[in-house]
Structures are given as C-alpha cells and as structure tokens.
Design brief:
The protein is of the alpha/beta class. Helix content is 29%, strand content 24%. The two termini are 36 Å apart. Strands 8-7-16-17-18-15-19 form a 7-stranded mixed sheet. Strands 10-2-1-14-20 form a 5-stranded parallel sheet, covered by helices on one side. 47% of the residues are buried.
Length: 437
C-alpha cells in the first residue's frame, strides 16, 4: 500500500485524502491547527464554549464535488437546502426569487419578473445578458476582461449591476465585478442559474462547520490519519523527488506528498518548485456575529441591498444572526466596535425589529486572506496538480480547478491531485465529477 502525506488539513487536503483512502492508499494529513477545515471551520467563543463559524460558508446544488465529499464523510444530511432567496431593500421591502414550473433555463423567470427592487428595463437587460451567458461563456478573451466590462458590453443598467449582478458575484466569488475576470463571472451564472432547475438552491450547514470535518467523521475512511497541531515545516526533496515532510523537528517519509496549503505558503514549504506568485492578491471576508435579546426576524436568510453589509443568516430562532461582508476591504482597518456599530445600524434599516432589540453580545471575524482575488490574467498562472518534482503534487482552491476560490474549487483541486497521485502509482481511479451540463 502506497503512503501519501498531505500537507494542510483544509478542504483541498481533506478531499484529496478522502479520495485516496477509497482507492486503498494510506494517507496522513498534517494540519497546523488543532482542528481540520482550514478557513471553513468553527471554534468556541472564549470563555463561553459556544461554537461559531469563522464565517458563514454556503454552497449551491451545482457544487457537485463538494456534495460528493460530504457524502464520503457521511455528513451530507447536515446541509439544509433553500429554494427561495430573499432580497431585502432598506426600509424592509422583501422580494423572493425561486424556481417555478418551467424547465431550465427559464425556471426562475416567473419570480424574477416579480422582483420589486428592479424596474422593467433592468429586468429586460438582465434577461438579455443571461441569455448571452449561454452563448458567450466559451469566448477566448474572458480571462482578459473584467466582469464589469462584459456587463457594460451587454448594456446593463446601473440598477441591474448594483442590485443584481454585484450582490450575486460578490457573494459567490468574494470579489467586485470590476476586479473579477469575466471567465469566472459567466461560469458563476451559467452553473448557478442556468444549467439546471435546481442548481441555484442554496445549501447552508445545519451544524457548526467543525462538526462536518471532526475526526469522528473520518471513521468511515480508516486509511486516513489526522495529525493536528502538526505544521509542516518543509517538504523534503531529494534527487528531484519528494520523499516526505519535516514537522516538529522530525522527518516523516512517504511515497508521495500533496502540498495543500494557501498559495502564499507554498514557496516556504517547497522552494524547489520556483513558483512565481507576482501579481496575486487576497480578497477578505468579514463575518459579524450578533446576539439580540429577542427575535428580530423569521426569515432564514436575506440578501441586503445598497449597504455595506450583504447577507444575514438566521442561526438561532431570529436572536442570533451572522452577517457576511465579502470583499470587505472597507472593514479591514476598522476597529471591532466600529464594525459592530455599522452592522447593527444598517441591519436596522432592513429588519425594523432590530431597532427595538438590545444587542447582548457581538463577535467579529476578519479573514484578511480569505481567498485569492479572481482577477483577469490569473487563469494561466494557476498551477496544475503535477509538479516538476517527482512525487510532489499541488492542491488548493488557487490551483487550476476551472473554478474561482470556492469550497467546490478546493474539493475539485483535492480530487485532481488524488487522481494524479493514483495514476502515477499505477492505480486507475477517477474522483472528479463533471460540472452540471
């Protein structure tokens, strides 16, 4: 049995390990933190024991590989899917987007034309552009132009961009339309809105993220060993071959190594690769946790228009809400109290009950390096799973997954790396599931 070491216990590393275990490999995951999951995790509040997610992570039905990974861990039943999206305007007016009886790509048309936050000219412009997505998604220049430039080509109205395209793109890709390569923007709308009548459905974990990846979930995969609080200091390369890792002053040997760490850490672990990340940037996400003395909403979630805060998720009967601000550069330098004050003030514009409620406690989590910025020109720079060093493979949402930096992209990268490891070991195995047609 071949032994594989995975450096990094985030989604990419865990997915690669889970896939290889099903193919008969012995796998050890080395994770620096005391829990697996990487940026998609949860931890107890200091002194309280209550688990909170570092930020609300969601998925769509089109995330077929992420769902496959959850099935491998036996936790797919902990994802609750929602078929309706609630868009809320300042003042509290709410519109609902959901599928009707028509087949894809027309399944959302009925509720779309009933949205109250867009005018008829905005809706017609959006409908015209959505049809263009199907026609133009294979254009050869989409990694050279921004999504905003593409939208301007499609003659989108100001309201269409700011109240429809921008909220969806920022939430899905963690970047602004003027920074996103059109390649990823069109893919987002094709797979999420047009490919299937159910692909848009939003999955929200019904348990803290750490419960999805806890060590007990790996019992169904006995070939995997988790080493927590075991950071990899260096990937050992001898005669142009990866032969193991160094961790805590000890050497651990393996037949293959998957480096599944964020892009900014790769060169430190394997300088022999000589990878160049010049021009790469991060995009931050801020999660704001608010506990009130009474319920302030019955809605499960809401997209919040025209303000800094972007989404809320109802975590506990309307008293505990998690606010998400993606591409949150404006909040990075703000102090904790300023962020909380801003969130409560703006939330009160959407949910009137907030203005009558008392804030009991609050917590702010800033993921400054949440994802890479999906800028034009990066696609060609994203690495393949195989490297020039024998036995060394790469995984991570920043590698060439054909997806932007998402949980689905991370799992895809782990599966691709696992396929490469298996093939080079002479094992025929296929893990990566194709995107929805």
């Amino acid at each position: 049995m071949s032994k594989v070491i995975v450096a990094g216990g985030g989604l990419a590393g865990m997915a690669g390990a889970a896939a290889l275990a099903t193919a008969g490999f012995e796998v050890e995951i080395f994770e620096a933190r005391g829990f697996p999951g990487g940026r998609a995790t949860s931890y107890p509040l200091a002194g309280e024991g209550e688990l909170i997610d570092n930020c609300q992570h969601i998925l769509l039905r089109c995330c077929v590989n992420l769902l496959d990974f959850y099935r491998r861990l036996g936790v797919a039943d902990k994802i609750r899917f929602h078929r309706e999206f609630y868009f809320i305007e300042p003042g509290g007016k709410t519109s609902i987007l959901g599928a009707g009886p028509l087949p894809a790509p027309l399944h959302l048309m009925g509720s779309f034309f009933r949205l109250r936050f867009l005018g008829l000219s905005d809706k017609l412009a959006i409908a015209r552009a959505l049809m263009a997505v199907r026609r133009e998604r294979r254009r050869m220049d989409l990694d050279r132009i921004t999504m905003l430039a593409w939208l301007q080509e499609q003659r989108q109205t100001h309201a269409a961009v700011d109240r429809f395209w921008r909220p969806v793109l920022v939430s899905a890709i963690n970047e602004e339309p003027e920074r996103i390569a059109a390649l990823y923007g069109l893919q987002c709308f094709h797979l999420g809105f047009l490919a299937s009548s159910r692909s848009y459905e939003m999955g929200v974990p019904s348990a803290p993220l750490s419960e999805l990846y806890r060590p007990e979930s790996w019992h169904a995969l006995p070939g995997v060993r988790l080493r927590l609080r075991a950071p990899v200091d260096r990937i050992v390369v001898e005669n142009s071959m990866a032969v193991g890792v160094e961790s805590g002053g000890e050497r651990h040997t393996a037949d293959a190594v998957i480096c599944a760490v964020p892009f900014e850490r790769v060169s430190g672990l394997a300088p022999e690769l000589g990878l160049d990340f010049t021009g790469w940037e991060h995009s931050p996400i801020t999660g704001i946790h608010l506990w009130f003395d009474r319920p302030v909403t019955e809605l499960p979630h809401g997209a919040l228009l025209d303000r800094t805060i972007q989404w809320f998720f109802n975590k506990s009967g309307g008293r505990y809400l998690q606010i998400v601000v993606s591409a949150s550069r404006s909040l990075v330098e703000m102090g904790r109290s300023e962020v909380i004050e801003l969130a409560v003030r703006e939330l009160g514009e959407f949910l009137p009950a907030v203005r009558e409620a008392r804030l009991e406690k609050a917590h702010v989590v800033k993921e400054v390096r949440a994802t890479f910025s999906a800028k034009p020109g990066l696609q060609a720079k994203r690495a393949e799973p195989r490297t020039a060093i024998g036995g060394l493979y790469l995984a991570g949402d920043w590698t060439r997954t054909a997806w932007p930096a998402t949980m689905e992209g991370a799992v895809r990268s782990g599966y691709r790396a696992a396929e490469a490891v298996a093939a080079d070991a002479g094992v025929r195995a296929s893990f990566l599931l194709p995107d929805l047609a």
